[in-house]
Design brief:
Elements lengths: L3 H14 L6 H9 L2 H5 L2 E6 L2 E6 H4 L1 H8 L5 E5 L2 E2 L11 E5 L2 H10 L8 E4 L5 H10 L4 E5 L2 H13 L5 E4 L12 E6 L8 H5 L1 E11 L7 E7 L5 E5 L26 E4 L10 H10 L4 E4 L4 E5 L4 E7 L4 E6 L4 H14 L8 E5 L4 E5 L6 E3 L3
Parallel strand pairs: 6-7, 6-9, 7-8, 9-10
Antiparallel strand pairs: 1-2, 3-4, 3-5, 10-11, 11-12, 12-18, 13-17, 14-15, 15-16, 16-17, 18-19, 19-20
Bound molecules: S-adenosylmethionine (SAM).
S-adenosylmethionine binds next to strand 5, helix 7 and strand 7.
Protein name: Protein-L-isoaspartate O-methyltransferase
EC number: 2.1.1.77
Subcellular location: Cytoplasm
Length: 377
């Protein structure tokens, strides 16, 4: 059988050939950390709209290891159920995974992590990315927080088996982790709707926060924020199409089955197809941050669970009609945001940036004085 060491080195070589490392220290870490230790012996793979558990013994070692050493995110938990315990395919939401290694490294490079740094990771998950950090920085300099007690215990076992001894904590990483503050970097491997103020408080001046900013329409952007001497963090989104599962306290509220209400009807000024574009979706979400997106047969709908407001579109032969019901005019909000974006020439997410203070968070277009949106707090 092909050895894990050989597969790991070949895998790191493939990532290098695709230009995934600019710093050789991360290549060395990928070569050294056995990812199979962290995946356990079962994962989920997508099967239509469900997640099918796949076990090592069912695939055989050779096929299992080639899955492990592919640049793929492997979902390990769906709605709190681990792949080993799943009775069969599950239809729920992924709640933990081992992120694809190229993205693990990309986040670390974006954070500009250097030898001697102290790093806080939010979302230990399987512990794989924690082990990559430990390989470079040593366990004493690595702090990692996991929300789910069961996952945290498994990650702790696997990290020990890999010879890593980071500081691990079980809890809500949106509160940061005061023990190791001030950090040189905070890296979130779950997405957030807003930047938790604790991440700013626990960062040294000049330190960076790397995270995906997402929301209830699941429009997401990867950003590096740097803390200035006044305690404000600033940064611009990067081009990568990175998406992570939302931090558990930022998850969408449970949504009842969608039934379309006629409400008030008018022509839509914009096509709902704009939300098929990743930046269009990101902008629409900034416009209506409390809305969830529902795909209907030939259009889309937005639902605000708290107020029961809804908006839904349908083709009318020449364009689109929109129906809105409830106290919030969700489509008006979306149109206004999309209009500002289109007037600026529909740029990609690198045209957007963020300014975060203790009390206020805005995403702006162009520069900090450009059109901006306040994030929900
Ligand atoms: C994409 S997975 C982490 C991937 C992980 N770093 C790895 O390489 O295996 C996201 C993790 O974030 C955890 N999580 C979600 N919300 C959290 C929170 N508020 N605080 C800490 N962890 C959280 C989830 O339980 C999940 O394990």
């Amino acid at each position: 059988m092909t050895s894990s060491t050989f597969l790991r080195q070949r895998f790191a070589g493939e990532l290098a050939a695709y230009g995934r490392f600019t710093d050789p220290a991360w290549r060395a870490a990928v070569e050294a950390v056995p990812r199979e230790l962290f995946l356990g012996d079962a994962v989920f793979r997508p099967q239509g709209i469900e997640w099918e558990p796949v076990r090592r013994e069912q695939l055989g070692d050779e096929a299992w290891l080639s899955m492990v050493y592919s640049d793929t995110t492997w979902v390990t938990q769906v709605d709190g159920i681990g792949a080993r315990d799943a009775p069969g395919p599950l239809a729920g939401r992924p709640t933990s995974s081992s992120t694809l290694p190229s993205l693990v490294v990309r986040m670390l490079e974006l954070a500009d992590v250097r030898d001697g740094d102290r790093v806080l990771e939010i979302g230990t998950g399987t512990g794989y990315s924690t082990a990559i950090l430990c390989h470079r920085l040593g366990g004493k300099a690595v702090y990692s927080v996991e929300y789910d007690e069961y996952l945290a215990a498994a990650a702790a076992r696997h990290l020990r088996a890999a010879g890593c001894s980071p500081h691990l904590a079980v809890g809500d990483g949106l509160r940061g982790h005061q023990d190791g503050a001030d950090y040189d970097a905070v890296i979130a491997t779950c997405a957030v709707r807003t930047i938790p103020p604790s991440w700013l408080w626990q960062l040294r001046e000049g330190g960076s926060i790397v995270t995906t900013l997402s929301g209830w329409m699941l429009g997401s952007g990867l950003i590096r924020l740097v803390l200035d001497d006044k305690g404000t963090a600033h940064g611009r989104f990067v081009t990568d199409q990175a998406s992570y599962m939302l931090a558990r306290p930022h998850e969408r509220p449970p949504r009842p089955t969608f039934y379309a209400h006629p409400g008030s009807t008018r022509d839509s000024w914009v096509s709902p197809d704009l939300l098929d574009d990743l930046t269009g979706l990101f902008v629409a979400q900034l416009g209506a941050p409390s809305a969830e997106l529902v795909r209907t047969g030939d259009g889309l709908a937005q639902v605000d669970v708290a107020t029961g407001s809804q908006a839904w579109t349908e083709p009318d032969g020449t364009g689109w009609t929109v129906h809105q019901d409830g106290p919030l005019r969700l489509w008006d909000q979306v149109e206004e945001a999309l209009d500002a974006w289109q007037k600026a020439g529909s740029p990609d997410r690198t045209a957007f940036g963020m300014t975060v203070t203790e009390g206020d968070q805005t995403v702006w277009l162009g520069d900090p004085a450009g059109p901006c949106r306040r994030l929900p707090t």
